[in-house]
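the two lines:
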Amino acid sequence: MNKDSQSEEVTWPYATLIMCGFFGVDSPGGKILATRTTVALVIFLISSLILPALNNHILEILSYILIPSSLIYILWSYKEYLGGLDELSQLIQYKAIAISYGIVVVVGMTFLGLEVHSEVSLSLLPIYILMAEGFRGFALGFIAKEYS
Amino acid sequence: MKNNIRILRAEKRITQAELAEKLNVSRQTINAIENEKYDPSLSLAFKISSMFNKPVEEIFITNENE
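prediction for all of em together
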């Protein structure tokens, strides 16, 4: 019999799924996603932290353009990555998105409800997105385990 | 749904990685199908059927056919 055709087993890259939210640079389109996301994050950080601090009106306007553009670029890159995955990998990603962002919508709505009776602002959108991405990583790990 | 992909693969002497490459899916997908953790789409089931030159119903066995 050729090699180990009967008993071979393979696992998902759990650490990468939980920490980075994708199947790693070896997955189809993984390297491109990593490169695009890194470039977009560098542009986002420069636009949101450095450009506004330079006190230049043109650079400030530029930062207003670059911040949403870099985030849209990340979303587009992720969409392209999902399109290149096989059917099971796509299913795992979609389930993780549904669970994590579903939880964050519930948490966000709860906080918004509490805010009515509170003087403290609880509707901090960037924190919700970070929370959702954290949940998504763990959801990916748990869901992938179901299919191993 | 049960399937006999592992047996057919052994008969053809091909590894999960080789089958995955031929079907353009990940090795984890083949593993999940063989372990009956995942039922493939109709499209993938027909690709598998074509790969082994067997009818789909001979490879995938539903509870009704048991």
